[in-house]
Amino acid sequence: MTDTPIPVCLSIAGSDSSAGAGIQQDLKTFTALGVYGATALTAVTAQNTLGVQAVEPLGPHIVRAQITAVMSDLGVQAVKIGMLPDAAVVRTVADALVAERERRPRGMPHIVCDPVMVSTSGHRLMAADAAECMVGSLFPLCTLVTPNLPEAESLWGEPLPTAAALDPAGRQLAARWGVHILVKGGHGADPDTVTDRLYSPDGTLRTFGKPRIVTPNLHGTGCTLSSAVAAFLSKGFSLHHAVAEAENFVARCIAGAKDLHIGRGNGPLRCGW
């Protein structure tokens, strides 16, 4: 009897000790969506639902060793990239992915990058020089980049308060890097609807709107969305289909967590548990 192959996703991200975001949430998402999750840890954080208390980056050599160990053995179909604490780690991750592309030019995994710059509580999770390095060395390797609105403004260099300002910027950034960009709308001003906007390198735009759910439990929303997209890509979904399915999955996770009481602050989503 032959075992049925299972898709494998690799999360390259930081650890969240409260398990609402980061590596821990990525693994929950992968499991809920029926794919096998492997990890390469970039940093250890001490955090809970009230915020981040401490961050300890890992050295580039151990980050690279983890990626190489997983990639050389597990047949990874998709990679999710989250917290990269400094420029040295960004360069290490980019170098490792370039090496993988050279090793398997016809089977390069999809890469989804969630550019985690600042935590929900306002704690900076990425050194200032790392963002520029990420844009130059990592984004061009990616299938999809998933900034929230403040991160998109940081990448663009100025406020993007309306769709009329955001859409030209999103199209230009997608064309510049040759990558699809999904700007998450959770920080938008509309009290009733959250609209995520997917910009393609060819200039096309697709929007994903959903009712805004009023809840304190939104910790890890971005991690969940990016890892869900990676999971669906690993299953062979097209990018647009993967994003649509991931959007629906996250909406269910938020709705399922609406009345949870875990911790005293920004609680987690409910993903398959």
Distance between the termini: 31 Å
The count of helical stretches stands at 8
Order of helices and strands: EHEEHEHEHEHHEEEHH
Helix content: 25-40%
**How large a portion of the residues is in β-strands, by DSSP E?**
15-25%
Question: What structural category characterises the helix and strand content?
Answer: alpha/beta
Unreliable runs = none
> Radius of gyration in whole Å, from Cα?
17 Å
Question: Could you outline the blueprint of secondary structure elements for this entry?
Answer:
Blueprint lengths: L7 E9 L5 H11 L3 E13 L2 E7 L2 H15 L3 E4 L5 H17 L6 E4 L14 H11 L5 E2 L3 H8 L6 H15 L2 E4 L9 E7 L5 E7 L9 H14 L4 H18 L17
Question: What does this 3D model show about the protein?
Answer:
Helices cover 40% and strands 21% of the residues. The protein has 8 helices and 9 strands. The protein has a 9-stranded mixed beta sheet with strand order 3-2-1-4-5-6-7-8-9. Helix 3 (87-103) links the parallel strand 4 and strand 5. The chain starts with 7 loop residues before the first strand and ends in a 17-residue tail after the last helix. 47% of the residues are buried. The mean pLDDT is 92.
Could you give a short description of this structure?
The protein has 273 residues and is an alpha/beta fold. It has helices at 22-32, 60-74, 87-103, 128-138, 149-156, 163-177, 221-234, 239-256, and strands at 8-16, 36-48, 51-57, 78-81, 110-113, 144-145, 180-183, 193-199, 205-211.
